[in-house]
Design goal:
Number of strands: 5
CATH superfamily of the largest domain: Reverse transcriptase/Diguanylate cyclase domain
Organism: Paractinoplanes lichenicola
Protein name: GGDEF domain-containing protein
Number of domains: 3
Pfam family, one: GGDEF
Radius of gyration: 33 Å
Helix content: 55-70%
Strand content: 5-15%
Mean pLDDT: 85
CATH topology of the largest domain: Alpha-Beta Plaits
Keywords: Membrane, Transmembrane, Transmembrane helix
Largest sheet: 5 strands, mixed
Number of helices: 12
CATH architecture of the largest domain: 2-Layer Sandwich
InterPro entries: Diguanylate_Cyclase (IPR050469), GGDEF_dom (IPR000160), Nucleotide_cyclase (IPR029787), Rev_trsase/Diguanyl_cyclase (IPR043128)
Low-confidence stretches: 306-310
Structural class: alpha+beta
CATH class of the largest domain: Alpha Beta
Length: about 300
């Protein structure tokens, strides 16, 4: 109960008190029995334990003690397995102690030693299975954040990573630029050459663009033929990166893109929406170019970018 994330309201503490009183009462009863004393002095303690348990069950906060939000977040850990296994070992260990003291049964040695060995082998096996399950879980989690076609991060990874990087930029006051890239006339490319060629174009474009980014920048498949970028730089440097991405675009294809620099107060959704609006502006202006959200002073850079493609 204490190692979990249970909500510790009045019901929780009544449960703790009930278990504590009951445990102490049982210790006292065992101590009395070992000395041949069997009085009823401990009866009020057992009654108090039952009353505390009933009070916990009737209290309104009891519904929150076992709620989903109050369960352990870390799941089963090796420490928990060792704790539970150690409790299981108490019985054979006590049997072994009784045998060494001469008060155990005739077969105390075989029973206690075999039980301890079996429990230890079981613990080793459980820990090995846990390690395997955790490794597989980590692999599945990593696959859940990768795009199955291109092998780069997917939309889910984009959403999570963008919020994380915005939080870092907010703490450190750093600059962030978000870009959305859309391959031009991708449907026509698919219709002309087939879907397999279209898939290969997406794979090769994602790989080629990823190689042109700096360490720490992010590219993800945003959806369909759209890709998202998170660049830790200013717009002027982002324009240079876009030019490099253009040169690396495979099979002579072109793309339209929209860029938006983080203002310092907007959310990831708002920032992405501005980049998306800039992307559609680039498409309206004739494609094969990029547009910058809210920065008309970058018109010259956009013109140079377009002329370098012809």
């Amino acid at each position: 109960m204490f190692t979990s994330a249970a909500r510790r309201g009045p019901a929780f503490w009544q449960l703790v008190a009930s278990l504590g009183v009951q445990g102490l009462a049982h210790v006292g009863w065992v101590w009395q029995s070992s000395r041949g004393v069997n009085h009823n002095e401990l009866a009020p303690a057992f009654v108090a334990s039952a009353l505390l348990l009933g009070g916990a069950a009737l209290h309104p906060s009891m519904v929150r003690v076992g709620s989903a939000g109050g369960r352990p977040s870390a799941g089963i850990t090796p420490q928990r397995v060792l704790l539970i296994s150690s409790a299981c070992l108490l019985s054979p260990v006590l049997l072994l102690v009784d045998g060494l003291l001469g008060v155990g049964s005739p077969d105390w040695m075989a029973a206690s030693v075999c039980s301890v060995v079996v429990f230890l082998l079981l613990i080793v096996r459980i820990l090995g299975l846990m390690r395997t399950v955790q490794e597989q879980s980590e692999q599945l989690e990593s696959l859940a954040y990768l795009d199955g076609l291109t092998g780069i991060p997917n939309r889910r990874a984009w959403d999570v990573e963008l919020e994380r990087r915005l939080a870092v930029a907010r703490r450190h006051g750093s600059t962030l630029v978000v870009g959305l890239i859309d391959l031009d006339h991708f449907k026509n490319y698919n219709d002309l050459l087939g879907h397999q060629a279209g898939d290969e174009l997406l794979r090769s474009a994602g790989s080629a663009w990823q190689q042109q980014l700096r360490a720490g920048d992010l590219i993800a498949r945003y959806g369909g033929e759209e890709f998202g970028l998170v660049m830790h730089c200013r717009l002027k440097d982002a324009a240079i990166i876009m030019d490099r991405l253009h040169e690396a675009t495979p099979d002579g294809q072109t793309f339209s893109a929209g860029l938006a620099q983080w203002t310092g107060g907007e959310s990831g959704e708002q920032l992405t929406a501005r980049a998306d609006a800039a992307l559609y502006a680039a498409k309206r202006e004739g494609r094969n170019r990029f547009s910058v959200a809210g920065h008309p002073s970058y018109t010259d850079l956009q013109a140079d970018f377009v002329s370098s493609r012809h």
